[in-house]
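Need the bound structure for zinc ion, inputs here:
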Amino acid sequence: MKHKLWVGVDIGGTKISAGLVEGSGKILHRKKISLPVNLSRKKIISVIFSLIQELLEDEGVKARLLKGIGLGVPGIVDQRGVVINAPNISLSGIDICKVIKRRFRVPVVAGNDVNLGVLGERWLGAAQGYKDIVGIFMGTGLGAGVIVDDKLLLGNHGAAAEIGHMLINSKGPKCSCGNYGCLEAYVGRWAIERDIRKELRKGRRSVLRTLLPPGSKIIKSKILAKAISRNDPLITEVMKRAALTVGDACVSLRHIFDPQIIVLGGGVIGACGDFILPLVQERLAKDKFFSKLGKCDVVVSQLEDNATILGAVALTCGI
Ligand SMILES: [Zn+2]
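Answer from helper R.:
Posting the output first, comments after.
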């Protein structure tokens, strides 16, 4: 009989993934489902219910035998597990732990998806054995999580470490949050795409014109990676600028948190990490202020898509 099992759920703006996980962190089974845009709150909850239910049924596990369920939510989650604000999915204001607990009758905890991703990397990934960690996740936007002296930094509202919305130029481009000149407005995938499309509209040549499937609404990270591998001047230029800006942000973060390690993760890093990492490292190496204080490792995520699922389980287990 299977025993001591947890479920970790990674709720994203466009997809939800869930894993059935052993106490060792081994993922026994994993499922993913795409979410149509503008799905109602009721429908999102019902998708989460059925995803967890299917995960259990596939493995022949009874829900009551679960030790707990952990949820990674793309937004601000307070200490009780209530979603305070989730800009990309209709879950704001919901006591999501209570709702899931009522259905499965096991302990449920929730946290910000990127914070949990960093917990996952500390448990089983690139940040194992470290106690002062900064994790930066470059996806559509830019999320981050910070662990100081072995403790996840949450702040007063659970909104700490929103590094993507660190204001770096108040006269800069408009950000997804409504402010102007946030870091995300320069280096999030949507911002990279904005810069590329602007150049394409001007008529600039790029291999992207042949790589992009006709009518595609977004430029996926894998397409960016392909264009870089073909030495496309436009994509290389835009991506280099973004990578060096992330590098600058890492210098600032090092001065604020003095971490032992910085972990870069998320979809853009998963696809283009080989290109971005050396540029970030180059920026940090030039940091004169810290030159006498020893090194701060910068690495890419090891858990990739599983970081938040495993971090959600780590939160449930109190790891
Ligand atoms: Zn912002």
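Comments: The first strand starts at residue 5 and ends at 11. The chain has a mean pLDDT of 94.
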